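Model it.
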Amino acid sequence: MLWFLRALFGSRIKPMNMIRLRKQIFLQNLEYLQSIQPQAAIFPVLKSNAYGHGLKQIAKMLSRTDAPYIAVDSYPEYVIVKKNSHIPILILGETLLENYTKFDHKKTTFCVYNIWTIRHLWRLGKETKIHLFFNTGMNREGIQEDQLSGFLKELQSHPNLIVEGVLSHCFDSDNISDHMINDQIQRFKRMYYKLIDTWFTPKRRHIGNSAAMFKIKDEFFNAYRPGIALYGYNPLNPQDSLYKHWNNLLPVLSISSRVISLQTVWPGEWVSYHHDYRPSDKQNIATLPFGYAEWLTRSASGKLFIKHRKTFFRQVGVICMNLSTYAVDNSLSIGDEVEIISDNPRAKNSLTNLAEQSGTIVYETLVKLDRGIRREVV
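Modeled.
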């Protein structure tokens, strides 16, 4: 029986698809971002499965850093981070009121902007740290400026709620013009000083996301919440004068797959659905178990490349749910590993190129990567 159990559970099945995460690059990115705002605390944002990289893996990478907080969006994300890191957790999103009893209030700080949440946290009777979320113009969430007095009056009667910080979110910091971000900063400061006038003394003031870390030069803000930059991607417009500073950041992630089939296709025959691709000469076709379920988007069909050793091969035919096909030479064999996404930002098969060819942004491409693909830290 023992040999059977060892055979069944003793070794992990080798995956066909693999996401590799470069720990040293991730930590270098974090260190560089800290150098951009040396006076401020950095709260790494790990929402949406750490931007597709793997929440568990990135939380473990951060466990030996001195980050004051790891920022996540929800309770399920909180559970994973709590199991894999000792760092306190900042919850950016709201949850159902009854869920607040499930958090460890000694390790957790909540961003709040609803009066109902404030009242509910007060009724729990626990000392709870909160950050007040100001609406500075995005009008997606947050306390509106003309409602702030009512919130502060409510808070004054709830001494178990500790206003440790105030925050907002930049909605136009990736624009070449700084007009909107300056307007947001002025509104934030007006609301902050109104808070101070009522004798609250928040320790943390943060509005800046990744792009804003390069745009804001104001020591009033003593914390930042980088997301996409941690993982090595540039949200700024290429025409922005600050765009070049992102050369110091590198992508953390690369993706590989394995050849599962090789087909010989003759002139007049076709590849994949709808007869979209017909070679004019004899063509070798390699198939990978990586399709739009893994988020190699169907809209990018015929526009992408993979790499084997030093050679790039074009994707051909319609990308299928779990399969994609490539025009290759005689150098590939079944079982060979190929690189679908490179960690070289300038490569033909970069994730940035995948996003562009898919008609979307890097953020969406990352967060939709199949969570079932194994993530390995290297």
